[in-house]
Design a protein that fits this description.
Elements lengths: L4 E3 L10 E3 L2 E5 L5 H12 L8 E4 L4 E5 L14 H18 L3 H5 L4 E3 L8 E4 L2 E5 L6 E3 L1 H13 L8 H15 L8
Antiparallel strand pairs: 1-2, 2-3, 3-5, 4-5, 6-9, 7-8
């Protein structure tokens, strides 16, 4: 195994994340049991768009499988096909969490990422492929996570995008996610 640490500089928040071989090492802040349980659940459900939890290294960092690709540093303008792919990825993530024990215990619909946008996405080429950085996960409503993700992916509120274009892109994002069975409570 290659022991050379390469800093991973994508995204916008977590400092100290490095690549070693085909793994990612992240500093552990607080209790990560929920995150590690969710990653194991996603693996059992066959969801390929999330890293696998592999353990804790000798320095106390969590060890995750590497999702090869690139992570943007900032929000930006994404093409329709990228938006549709991102919304579909979020839908598959949500669907894979409906039977996660914490969802049932909280009487929720799904596990929400609560910060899923381009800066927490691994792209393969121009295509959104993977979801990373599960620091803010919690049981909740699909519509909450979908709305927050749309805000990030569409850069809603950016005055460079006309209102009509923002509405068109929002409709595209929602349609690509599909009709969720959401509760209004």
């Amino acid at each position: 195994m290659n022991d050379l640490e390469t800093p991973l500089l994508g995204g916008r928040v977590t400092a100290g994340v490095v690549k070693i071989g085909d793994t990612v090492r992240r500093p552990i802040r607080g209790d990560r049991a929920l995150q590690h349980s969710l990653l194991a659940h996603l693996e059992q459900r066959g969801f390929a768009g999330a890293p696998r939890f592999l353990g804790v290294d000798a320095l106390g960092r969590e060890v995750l499988s590497l999702l090869p690709g690139a992570v943007p540093h900032e929000l930006g303008h994404y093409a329709d096909v990228q938006l549709a792919t991102a919304a579909g990825l979020l839908r598959r993530f949500h669907d894979a969490t409906t039977d996660f024990p914490f969802v049932r215990e909280a009487d929720a619909e799904v596990m929400c990422h609560n910060d899923w946008g381009p800066c927490n996405t691994v792209f393969r080429g121009d295509t959104p492929f993977g979801i990373i950085d599960f620091d803010t996960i919690a049981p909740g409503l699909r519509l909450w996570d979908l709305g927050y993700s749309a805000w990030l992916w569409l850069d809603i509120g950016n005055p460079d995008h006309a209102a009509g274009e923002q509405m068109r892109r929002l409709a595209l994002f929602a349609a690509a996610y599909g009709e969720p069975a959401c509760s209004a409570e």
